[in-house]
Amino acid sequence: MLKTKQRCLKTIVLSLLVACMVMVCFMQQGKLFPRAYASEDNNSEAGEPAIELQINNPTMKVNGIEKEINPGKGTAPILVNGQILLPIGALIEELGGSFGWDGDEQKVTLKLMEKEIQLWVNTNKAVVNGNEKKLDVPPQIINGSIMIPLRFVLENFDFCVNWNGTDRKIIISSQPPSAVTSASTVTPEPVPKGAVVLTGNIGDYQIDKTGTYVISGTVTGNITADLQEPGEIVIMGQRGTDPVVFGIPRPGEKRHVSHIIVRTNADHKVTIKNFRIEGNGHNALECNGDGTKLIKNIHIINYTRVIDGEEVFGAGSINAEENSKIVNCYMETGDDAIKITEPNSRAYNNTVVLKNNGSAIQLGWGKRGNGPNHIAENTTVKGSSRPNPNHPDESRNPGRSIIGGAFENDISNIRITGLKVHGTYYGHVIKLVAYNGAVIDTVYIEGTLLDGIENVDSEHTAIVLIAEEGSQIKNVTIDLGEVAADPEYHYITGDVDVTFVASKE
């Protein structure tokens, strides 16, 4: 009897030790993907790749260490109708989650980071935290292994899935965080020495000299700076206090001025960061002139208003003109969101929610939009942008597109990569127009249309490229997957040189 009790006690102790080891293992696995912010001073993506897979390769690299994807079975990721399928259990466990299988219902249950995803074999639906979603390709049982659509699962768990079509590799990394974290989770930044600190309820505020301005209150007005003396200016919200700028409409105006306006010249270096901006200004934030500009961690709600019975849209989110970087911003807007119209304008790790109007990435219109180097990396687009019946395919108006631009000046080196588009109800996915002798030269657009593509009506085709007489569009590569390469979704006319690449999974 005593020996039996001792054996039971040993069993309990061993079980506790094993449980502790498992907990430690999962705690370490939880650190696989630290929520790394994109650097404030460079253009890198958030975090380094932690997991790497390859089509038809039964192993994966986890922080550089090779492991089997489906231990003991040698199963590798495959492509089915453009989607990556793989046995996902070991991968989810590497991320600190769990995998469950119900053979009676043919159901897979995945749990990770307080989220739950349920999928059924041969069924084109999934349930994410109780909400039903459609699958392009259902889970399947192939050679005894349950093959799950990788991108759907991981992006619903808030991870990035990046596809390298050349090497047929998949890189999994953490998502960039939202632009502005809530006050309860952010440690306030120290106030720089010598800064002007604005607190309380602040009205219109005029900045007339360089320096650092810290706002920890609420601005019920507009901030303007028209700089004359050379030097550096920093306008920053005090993170941890959720500073808000509420733009105030001007009497009788449907679109009043921008809420933050900074005018610069080549002798200025400007940083604007850590704000929430609400209102219906011409732009939520405008930083013009040819000074060097960094705009980061801006959260914009640029909503519509009704004046005299007419719905009036805000006219955009951020216009930073040349020599600018727009980094880690979130924009809900009723018109153009990211304007990279001038030379050397760049945008990194931004999210746009369109509210039935405007372009997510606006490259220019008329004489706005010229010169070299218009770069946007890792832009996520959601919402919708309903087509304008007054501006069909053949019109010069580039609005209500995910990527839009109509140019009467030459423009070159447009590079948009890592684009992720949710939904399909947009006037156009891409609309580029060259006229009055303009040349659009060297365009590379790469990304993923997560919900596919559609022509919303007979006069608004998904991809529109127009070179009017005497103008030219050349050296264009569009890599948005096989579905976007289908001519059914193209309206292309004039002297246009374009290649569609179907390297997406």
Question: How would you explain this protein's 3D organization?
Answer:
The chain is mainly beta and 505 residues long. The protein has two domains: 124 residues, Copper amine oxidase-like, N-terminal domain (Copper Amine Oxidase, Chain A, domain 1); 305 residues, Pectate Lyase C-like (3 Solenoid), CATH 2.160.20. The protein has three helices and 43 strands. The chain has a 16-stranded parallel beta sheet that branches. The protein has an eleven-stranded parallel beta sheet with strand order 17-20-23-25-29-32-34-36-38-40-42, with no helix packed on it. A five-stranded antiparallel beta sheet has the order 3-2-1-14-13, covered by helices on one side. β4 and β5 form a beta hairpin. The protein is globular. It starts with a helix and ends in a 5-residue tail after the last strand. The N terminus is likely disordered.
Annotated CATH homologous superfamily of the largest domain = Single-stranded right-handed beta-helix, Pectin lyase-like
| Helix/strand/pairing category | mainly beta
Q: Which runs of at least 5 residues are low in confidence (pLDDT < 50)? A: 1-49, 175-186
Q: State the assembly state of the protein chains.
A: single chain
- Named at the architecture level, the CATH assignment of the largest domain is 3 Solenoid
The whole-number mean of residue pLDDT values reads 79
Q: How many domain regions? A: 2
Question: Which outline best applies?
Answer: globular
**CATH topology tier name of the largest domain:** Pectate Lyase C-like
- What separation lies between the terminal Cα atoms? 63 Å
Helix content: under 10%
Largest sheet: 16 strands, parallel
β-sheet strand percentage: over 45%
CATH top level of the largest domain? Mainly Beta
The DSSP helix count reads: 3
Q: What's the total count of β strands?
A: 43
Task: Compute the CA-based radius of gyration.
Answer: 26 Å
